[in-house]
Amino acid sequence: MSTTLSVKANHSAVTESAGMRQLLIAGALLFLLLFLLLPLISVFFEALRNGIGTYAEALTEPDALAAIKLTLIAAGISVPLNLVFGVAAAWAVAKFEFRGKTLLITLIDLPFSVSPVVAGLIYILMFGESGWAAGLIADTNIQIIFALPGIVLATIFVTFPFVARELIPLMQEQGTDDEQAALSLGANGWQTFWHVTLPNVRWGLLYGVLLCNARAMGEFGAVSVVSGHIRGETNTMPLHVEILYNEYNFAAAFAMASVLASLALLTLGLKSLLETRHGEALSQSHKH
Q1: CB atoms < 10 A from the CB of 151, how many?
Q2: Other beta carbons less than 10 A from residue 134's beta carbon
Q3: CA distance 64 to 62
Q4: Four-residue CA torsion sign, 141, 144, 146, 148
Q5: I need a labelling partner for 34 at 20 to 30 A (CA). Which of 51, 122, 136, 187 fits?
């Protein structure tokens, strides 16, 4: 009886005619075709236009290999650090009440509202030759701007909300009952975290790491400001694509762009797999 009522309710909620629904679906599919699928197909088409030999050569020349290596290093450093921060921040926000909690949540969301270019400029103002912290690092012989440390800092800034923002609503939805039960049975704080809290959010955690890694590898604005565009040294994959395109080396530019597109498709596939197999757990992390 309840099933029949729910079906009737669903039918009554749909006020558009069948023709209108088909028109809306066709419009959405056309939009996806024009603005997503065709550009993506064109990237791979242009990358392979001159043959597989030219494609392989574009990806194995020294500057391209240096860009790929730098991108992997920057992501390999920033993603684990954001993982630790995201778990700690989400645990604190969701499980405890403390002064400054609202401020912490606001700061976590800050990179979503600040332009990546502005984020890069902040690090220039801080660690550049005439920056606020220039005197502090002058005697250390550590170069931050136009070097790997600056690229890593910029990448961390633009990506640190992703893990925390996936975990906070999920942990809040689960509440503290499981942790309280574990503590009442004699578990200490770390045992409760490792054996109760972390297993309950593992799929949301993996989801956040995927999004964080995708953004880290594809970041352009903030990294462009702090990198200095030193070819073969401080160019990540997106920056290398820009330089090649500006030099009218379209085959090499699209070859590198196809690698980034492949990484994006891989991330999308893993994201879809997680949502399919663990959709209920992940959907809770998006309620807020």
Answers
A1: 31
A2: 14
A3: 5
A4: positive
A5: 51
Tell me, what DSSP letter sits at residue 179? H
DSSP annotation of 132: T
Tokens of 232: 């073969």
Supply the DSSP symbol for 175.
-
Q: What global pTM score does this model have?
A: 0.82
Residue type at position 282: L
Instruction: Give the Cα separation of 62 and 58 in Å (integer).
Output: 9
Q: What does 208-277 look like in DSSP terms, one character per residue?
A: HHHHHHHHHHH--HHHHHHHTT-TTTT--HHHHHHHHHHTT-HHHHHHHHHHHHHHHHHHHHHHHHHHHH
The mean-pLDDT minimum among 114-118, 240-244, 281-285 falls in: 281-285
76's tokens: 């390999």
The whole-number pLDDT of residue 7 equals 47
Residue 9: pLDDT band (50, 70, 90) is: very low
Looking at every residue in the chain, the average pLDDT score rounds to: 85
pLDDT category at 132 given cuts 50, 70, 90 is confident
Q: Per this entry, what is the length of the chain? A: 288
Number of H helices and E strands in the chain, helices first, is: 18, 0
Q: What average pLDDT does this structure show over 95-120?
A: 90
Contact indicator for 161, 93 with CB cutoff of 8 Å = no
Which pLDDT score, from 0 to 100, does residue 193 have? 82
Integer Cα distance of 251 and 57 in angstroms: 10
